[in-house]
Amino acid sequence: EKPLQDMYNCLHSFCLSLQLEVLHS
User: Which domain of life is it from (predicted)?
Assistant: First the structure.
């Protein structure tokens, strides 16, 4: 198990969705 990797993945997808929000606004 890699909790750090998991956290990174969550953060990454969060950033991606934020980017999309900004691009589409």
Answer: Eukaryota
Whole-model pTM: value is 0.62
pLDDT in tens, 1-25: 799 999 999 999 999 999 999 999 8
d(CA 18, CA 25): 11
Q: For residue 24, what is the enclosing H or E element?
A: helix 3-24
The domain spans of the chain are 1-24
* Coil, strand or helix at 7: helix
